[in-house]
Amino acid sequence: MQKTRTVLVTGGCGFIGANFVRLLRAKRPEWRLINLDKLTYAGNLNNLTGIAEGPEYRFVRADIGDAAAIEELFAAEPIDTVVHFAAESHVDRSITGPAAFIATNINGTFTLLEAARKSWSGAGRQDGDSRFLHISTDEVYGSLGAEGYFRETTAYDPRSPYSASKAASDHLVNAYFHTYGLPTLITNCSNNYGPYQFPEKLIPLIIHNALHGRSLPVYGDGRNIRDWLYVGDHCEAVLEVLERGVPGRSYNIGGNNEKMNIEVVTLVCDILDRRLGLPATGMTRRSLITFVKDRLGHDRRYAIDATRIREELGWQPQVGFEQGIEMTVDWYLANQEWVAAVVDGSYQEYYRTMYGGN
Ligand code: NAD
Ligand code: TDX
């Protein structure tokens, strides 16, 4: 028999969180789900259209750093499971404005850990099946040369304010396991792509710009390598770790799919050319590619060794990269209203600051 859970998902209105909320509603409809999200620029209720509030689903707008609000929620609801996605997630923004990353990723995670510790050490919640799953990133491990992979035993070596804040939160989570016995788990995943990703990240930004005939900014020489994973595969992995992972453990999640950024960008261009034909200029969309100033401290290569999750939990990615990019391009083509609503005034301002008038 499946255990029925009361799950607090944080950041469920963001890219991965919304995909995970959708997966849980479809696969574990009997679970009660509370989605807590601050609705920052990256959080969007439109990511959850079709998910109605009711006995099994509730949305709460709050900041994970607001200790009073979080403790009140734990007092009001029999939460036995936390899946913690909420974060400031964009590396470039962490370079221009790190403060929010410290507040949300470090202090916010601390606030959640404290609330869970206090609540779960109280009477009535000690059924031995509570879980605090912290969603983290491969970026905590730093940057690889041409060889090697990140394993769960790889020493942390974060190099951007974003990755340093995620590393700090991972350390806090582990400290709560060792010190207080909080049943924590951590997943460290590679780059995700797919529906509902905010167009500040490489793939949706390239799709959006290419559709509007704008230049396609590629940082540095375009040869930095990321390991790309379709978001649906990531969400399936998160559910596996939540239900069957061993508390105290970390699980690396990756697509075994290393690509140079320039390969990713040209693939998106070629798919759009195939889907829509050439633009009015008669030039392929590859002609829009523009090499721009590199990101400060730009990590060269990430690559995940996902042996542990494959061997322990039997998880493997199901969506191939070309297939996943085609599905993603098609989703953005079919959801131009969603895109139009998120590229509002503040996005335009962000874009001008980052990329100038291009
Ligand atoms: P996102 O930026 O799309 O969404 C973040 C969500 O968190 C938004 O809904 C936002 O409103 C919410 N949020 C931000 N600050 C908050 C706060 N103080 N209180 C409550 N809610 C807050 O991020 P994403 O890409 O979906 O990433 C989700 C998680 O997965 C993050 O923890 C990120 O570090 C991790 N991760 C992301 C990737 C990736 O490729 N996107 C890869 C590995 C790990
Ligand atoms: O305009 C761009 N041009 C460009 O060349 C942008 C936005 C990015 N890039 C490069 C930088 C990276 O090498 O593309 C690569 C991917 O960039 P992002 O989409 O910003 O992702 P990245 O910095 O790799 O981090 C992502 O994966 C790990 C997520 O944003 C993180 O939240 C996650 O932890």
TrEMBL record:
<dbReference type="GO" id="GO:0009225">
    <property type="term" value="P:nucleotide-sugar metabolic process"/>
</dbReference>
<feature type="domain" description="NAD(P)-binding">
    <location>
        <begin position="8"/>
        <end position="328"/>
    </location>
</feature>
<dbReference type="Pfam" id="PF16363">
    <property type="entry name" value="GDP_Man_Dehyd"/>
</dbReference>
<dbReference type="GO" id="GO:0008460">
    <property type="term" value="F:dTDP-glucose 4,6-dehydratase activity"/>
</dbReference>
<protein>
    <recommendedName>
        <fullName>dTDP-glucose 4,6-dehydratase</fullName>
        <ecNumber>4.2.1.46</ecNumber>
    </recommendedName>
</protein>
<dbReference type="InterPro" id="IPR016040">
    <property type="entry name" value="NAD(P)-bd_dom"/>
</dbReference>
<dbReference type="InterPro" id="IPR036291">
    <property type="entry name" value="NAD(P)-bd_dom_sf"/>
</dbReference>
<keyword id="KW-0456">Lyase</keyword>
<keyword id="KW-0520">NAD</keyword>
<dbReference type="InterPro" id="IPR005888">
    <property type="entry name" value="dTDP_Gluc_deHydtase"/>
</dbReference>
<comment type="similarity">
    <text>Belongs to the NAD(P)-dependent epimerase/dehydratase family. dTDP-glucose dehydratase subfamily.</text>
</comment>
